[in-house]
C-alpha cells in the first residue's frame, strides 16, 4: 500500500510539472506571435515579458511527440500482452452475466470473475496484487446492460460509457451463435472510424490497449465506428472464397457513448482531471474520410455507411 501511494504521488507530481511547462510554452508562443506580427503584448504576459524573451533565445522548434505522463500510462503496450479482468455489478442478472462472459471471450487474455459483495476499492487492490493491467466493469438497469467502465491500472485513465442497443451472441438468430459460427480466438485487428479530436484519440487509446498486438494476417476485425459521439461496435471475421470477400458477424454488438473520462484510476477521481463528454461533437470534428481500402469496407453499420 505504501508503494502504491508513493507511485501515485510521483505520477500526480509528473502531471503537475507537465501542466506547468505547458502553460509556460503557451505564454512563449503568445510572445513569439506578438513579436512576429508587431502587435501589442497580451496583458497576461506583460509583467513577465522580459523573462519570456530570454527563454525564447534558447528555445527553437521541435520537441513534438515527446513522451508525457499520458504516454507513460501505456509505456509497455505492445511489449507485453494486457491482462484484463471482466466483472459485473453486484447481484447481476442472468443477461448481464452472459454479456460479461461474451466480453471475456471477445478480449483475448481476459478473465471473468464473480463480483460478489466486493467494493471497487477491494476489487482494485486484488487486481493490483495480481498485476492486472485493465479492469472492465459492466452494469445494468432492470436487467439491461447500460454502463461499461474501463479502468487502466494502476493510475488510469478510466472511461465510463453508456451502452445502447446491446445484442449478445445468444440473442442473434441469424448472426453470432445463431449462425453456428464459433467465437474466433485470433488476436483482432482494429478498424477505427472518427474519433479524430484529442479526446477522441484518448478514447481510442483506451479501447485499443485492451487488446494485444495482432498478427498482420489476422482475419478477425473489431470495428469502432463513431458518428455524433456514438460509437457503434461490431465484431467480424472475413475470408476470400474464389476471390470473393465473405464477411461473418459474430457479436456481441452494441452502441456506446462516452459519458466521462478520468485521468486517474477508478478510485482516484478525487485528484481531479475529469473530462465530461455530454456535449456533441467532442469525439470528432466532422472532417471524416468515409473511404478506406481495407477489405472490411464491405461491412455496413445500421446507417449504411461503409466502415473503415
From TrEMBL:
Q: Does the keyword Ribonucleoprotein apply?
A: yes
SMART domains attached to this UniProt entry? Brix (SM00879)
List keywords of the entry alphabetically. Ribonucleoprotein
GO cellular component annotations of the record: Mpp10 complex; nucleoplasm; small-subunit processome
Concerning PROSITE patterns, the annotation shows:
BRIX
Any idea which GO molecular function terms this record carries?
Answer: rRNA primary transcript binding; snoRNA binding
Q: Where is the Brix domain?
A: 82-267
**GO BP term, example:** rRNA processing
Family matches, as Pfam families: Brix
PANTHER family in the record: U3 SMALL NUCLEOLAR RIBONUCLEOPROTEIN PROTEIN IMP4
Listed name of the protein: U3 small nucleolar ribonucleoprotein IMP4
Amino acid at each position: 500500500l505504501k508503494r502504491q501511494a508513493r507511485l501515485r504521488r510521483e505520477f500526480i507530481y509528473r502531471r503537475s510539472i507537465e501542466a506547468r511547462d505547458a502553460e509556460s510554452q503557451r505564454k512563449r508562443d503568445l510572445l513569439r506571435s506578438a513579436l512576429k506580427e508587431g502587435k501589442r503584448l497580451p496583458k497576461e504576459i506583460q509583467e513577465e515579458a522580459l523573462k519570456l524573451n530570454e527563454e525564447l533565445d534558447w528555445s527553437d522548434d521541435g520537441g513534438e511527440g515527446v513522451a508525457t505522463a499520458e504516454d507513460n500510462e501505456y509505456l509497455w503496450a505492445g511489449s507485453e500482452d494486457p491482462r484484463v479482468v471482466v466483472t459485473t455489478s453486484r447481484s447481476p442478472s442472468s443477461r448481464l452475466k452472459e454479456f460479461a462472459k461474451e466480453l471475456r471471450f471477445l478480449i483475448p487474455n481476459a478473465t471473468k470473475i464473480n463480483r460478489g459483495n466486493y467494493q471497487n476499492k477491494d476489487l482494485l487492490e486484488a487486481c493490483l496484487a495480481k498485476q492486472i493491467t485493465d479492469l472492465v466493469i459492466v452494469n445494468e438497469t432492470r436487467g439491461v446492460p447500460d454502463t461499461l467502465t474501463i479502468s487502466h491500472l494502476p493510475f488510469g485513465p478510466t472511461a465510463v460509457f453508456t451502452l445502447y442497443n446491446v445484442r449478445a451472441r445468444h440473442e442473434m438468430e441469424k448472426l453470432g451463435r445463431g449462425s453456428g459460427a464459433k467465437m474466433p480466438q485470433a488476436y483482432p485487428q482494429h478498424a477505427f472510424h472518427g474519433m479524430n479530436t484529442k479526446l477522441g484519440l484518448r478514447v481510442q487509446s483506451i479501447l485499443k490497449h485492451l487488446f494485444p498486438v495482432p498478427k498482420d494476417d489476422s482475419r478477425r476485425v473489431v470495428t469502432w465506428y463513431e458518428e455524433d459521439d456514438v460509437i457503434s461496435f461490431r465484431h467480424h471475421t472475413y475470408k476470400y472464397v474464389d476471390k470473393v470477400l465473405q464477411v461473418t458477424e459474430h457479436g456481441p454488438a452494441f452502441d456506446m457513448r462516452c459519458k466521462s473520462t478520468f485521468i486517474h484510476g477508478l478510485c482516484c477521481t478525487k485528484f481531479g482531471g475529469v473530462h465530461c463528454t455530454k456535449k456533441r461533437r467532442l469525439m470528432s470534428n466532422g472532417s471524416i474520410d468515409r473511404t478506406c481500402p481495407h477489405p472490411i469496407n464491405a461491412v455496413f453499420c445500421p446507417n449504411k455507411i461503409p466502415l473503415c
